[in-house]
Amino acid sequence: MAKTLSEKVWDAHVVAEGEGNSPDLLYVDLHLVHEVTSPQAFDGLRTAGRKVRRPDLTVATEDHNVPTLNIDKPIADPISRAQVEALRKNCDEFGVPRYSLGHAEQGIVHVVGPQTGLTQPGMTIVCGDSHTSTHGAFGALAFGIGTSEVEHVLATQTLPLKKFKTMAVTVNNKLPDGVTAKDLILTIIAKIGTGGGQGYVLEYRGEAVRNLSMEGRMTMCNMSIEGGARAGMIAPDETTFAYIEGRDRAPKGKDWEKALEYWRTLPTDDGATFDHEVILDAATLSPFVTWGTNPGQGVPLSAAVPDPAQFSDPVERTAAERALQYMDLQPGTKLKDVFVDTVFLGSCTNGRIEDLRAAAEIIKGKKLANNLKMIVVPGSARVRLQAEAEGLDQVFLGAGAEWRSAGCSMCLGMNPDKLSRGERAASTSNRNFEGRQGPGGRTHLVSPQVAAATAILGHLAEPKDLGM
Amino acid sequence: MEAFITHTGIGAPLRRSNVDTDQIIPAEYLKRITRHGYEDALFKAWRDDESFVLNHPIYKTATVLVAGPEFGTGSSREHAVWALMDYGFKVVISPRFADIFRGNSGKGGLLTAQVTDEVTEQLWAYLEADPGAKITVDLPSQQITAGEIVASFEIDPYVKWRLLEGLDDIGITMQQLDQIDTFEQNRASWRPKTTA
Ligand code: SF4
């Protein structure tokens, strides 16, 4: 029977098929762990006298509440410090390898997996973090889990799960110049809504997706969860293989040949059917930005803030009214007339080397707008090192931006990097929820290119507005 | 986990859609390493506003939350479930739940009852007309009763079974260790490892 990519990966990992209403028991190839969603899980193991079944398929990193300044000093916030120390202690006690602050591989969990070569096609990957969907860019079935499930995977290396439904998101034609993977995924979320992907694994396909770099594909898969989907996937191809080859944990020699042979069987078969399909024309897209407080509330950057009265759905109308009030925006205001206080470049959505390069190219030789603050936070220590080797840090510093150490940082404001009340940000992260980047903070989600142009001009802008 | 059969308690109307887990519990509370003690963190940003529904004294002892669609979207934090349960909630009723939140609820013993938009609207009207009114949620019959309102709700049959039995997942899986061993023996040897 013809199968989709996700069905192939699923079927290859069923340990025991569920009978009747019961879920399948699915094997987990890689379990990524971080400090926030794991302490209660390790505690559970200890209480029950259980071990970590496969420490060799588990790896931990410190990301969510690590500081991005003075990382050689003890963490100043005692509660954050206690949590990071709990992770170190738990990992050491249970034999789980960890990338702690100061290690070259330390960084945001979804940047670490791919950069080490641990993330590979056809794998099942889980993490106590909803943006685990990022790894789907490699043709892995990767999804976020809760802390109880973290404990379950630590103890058994499996998860009881019901099969996801499948949705094809086909993006035909080419993206116009200056339109990025971020604009594409924000457009898709605005189209399907924050609940549109509920219960589905999305498979992104079509010419525009095939043309994306691995970084771009990761940006897309990363935000699948913002459309309600548990996972997003892209079939592996030569771009994928070229990215993996030679990385630390990639298969080598004969193993590489074996792996390649298997990976080439993964793409969705001709004639396989999806439960649902969405089709977009890439050629019609333009830079995209959110105006509201959920990632589905977005419009093209060239447009104006919508009028809630124009929404036919009463739930959406109320949500829009609330959002505009929170965001302090008036219907009809051109988004390019919206001035921002802070620009945040980073996160697991857009904190990879390619993102930093794209922003640096726009910023090079220019100065930040008056009174505007920009913080640049590489996704991992390795990305930071690479960027420094390329001189990107000097570009950002020269423009007046701050150059930080790796972590989640202002994406969720668990560390000291927060927006203050009423502060408005253009952010390359993935969530614009009320207070997400700091209590009372206001977030516009954008691509790295739009973030960079905005940093120079002071209002939401695209490179074109700089004559680029 | 405690079994869930039937529950009657005060219903709190939360007239909002897209209640994401950042609203249910902000990130600053995620630094703790315990599983309990999150009652004060629940809806923290909103509770600073006096007019917020849960600030009404009558809802101090509310146990059934009635919310708009897309409840629990966003971050996978299970703390959201813990905060709701620590506050005293046993049931959340909504037209649509985010997948991860629903999964987390099932693990923790919080019942997520999915109803239609119309039923949600009726329940809100009923609770707002009579603050402190009670709602009964019966799991075996999948039925909600509130005054004159009688409505059925949806729940995954497997989650229902586990809640009724009060079973914990790890215990169930531990009975399948042989199958896990067999699976591991047949796994391709080139799959990556995290250790040297
Ligand atoms: S960067 Fe943001 S979205 Fe990504 S893992 Fe960290 S907190 Fe979560």
Summarize the SSE layout with pairings.
The complex is a heterodimer of chains A (468) and B (196).
Chain A: H1 5-11, E1 14-16, E2 24-27, E3 30-34, H2 39-48, E4 58-61, H3 78-94, E5 98-99, H4 109-116, E6 124-127, E7 141-144, H5 147-156, E8 158-161, E9 165-172, H6 181-192, E10 200-205, H7 207-210, H8 214-222, E11 231-233, H9 238-244, H10 253-263, E12 276-281, E13 288-290, E14 298-300, H11 314-327, E15 342-345, H12 347-350, H13 353-363, E16 373-376, H14 381-389, H15 392-399, E17 402-403, E18 424-427, E19 442-445, H16 448-457
Parallel strand pairs in A: 3-4, 3-6, 4-5, 6-7, 9-10, 9-12, 10-11, 15-16, 15-18, 16-17, 18-19
Antiparallel strand pairs in A: 1-2, 2-8, 13-14
Helix pairs in contact in A: 2-5, 6-8, 13-15, 13-16
Chain B: E1 6-14, H1 21-24, H2 44-47, E2 64-67, H3 79-87, E3 91-94, H4 99-108, E4 111-114, H5 117-129, E5 134-138, E6 143-146, E7 149-152, H6 157-165, H7 169-174, H8 177-185
Parallel strand pairs in B: 1-2, 2-3, 3-4
Antiparallel strand pairs in B: 1-5, 5-6, 6-7
The site of iron/sulfur cluster has 13 residues of chain A, from helix 12.
Keywords (chain B): Amino-acid biosynthesis, Branched-chain amino acid biosynthesis, Leucine biosynthesis, Lyase
Pathway (chain B): Amino-acid biosynthesis; L-leucine biosynthesis; L-leucine from 3-methyl-2-oxobutanoate: step 2/4
Catalytic activity (chain B): (2R,3S)-3-isopropylmalate = (2S)-2-isopropylmalate
Architecture overview:
The complex is a heterodimer of chains A (468) and B (196). With 468 residues, chain A is α/β, with parallel strands linked by helices. Chain A has two domains: 3-262, Aconitase, domain 3 (2-Layer Sandwich), CATH 3.30.499.10; 289-464, Aconitase, domain 3 (2-Layer Sandwich), CATH 3.30.499. Chain A is 32% helix and 16% strand. Chain A contains 16 helices and 19 strands. In chain A, the strands form five sheets. A five-stranded parallel β-sheet of chain A has the order 5-4-3-6-7, with helices on both faces. A five-stranded parallel β-sheet of chain A has the order 17-16-15-18-19, covered by helices on one side. In chain A, strand 4, helix 3 (78-94) and strand 5 form a beta-alpha-beta unit. In chain A, helix 13 crosses helix 15. The longest helix of chain A has 17 residues, at 78-94. The relative contact order of chain A is 0.13. Chain B has a single domain, classed as Alpha-Beta Barrel (Aconitase, domain 4). Chain B has a seven-stranded mixed β-sheet with strand order 4-3-2-1-5-6-7. The longest helix of chain B has 13 residues, at 117-129. Chain B contains eight helices and seven strands. In chain B, helix 3 packs across helix 4. With 196 residues, chain B is of the alpha/beta class. Chain B has helices at residues 21-24, 44-47, 79-87, 99-108, 117-129, 157-165, 169-174, 177-185, and strands at 6-14, 64-67, 91-94, 111-114, 134-138, 143-146, 149-152. Classes of the chains: A alpha/beta (468), B alpha/beta (196). At the A-B interface, helix 2, helix 3, helix 5, helix 10 and helix 11 of A face helix 4, helix 6, helix 7 and helix 8 of B. The site of iron/sulfur cluster (SF4) has 13 residues of chain A, from helix 12. Chain B: It catalyses: (2R,3S)-3-isopropylmalate = (2S)-2-isopropylmalate. Chain B: Catalyzes the isomerization between 2-isopropylmalate and 3-isopropylmalate, via the formation of 2-isopropylmaleate.
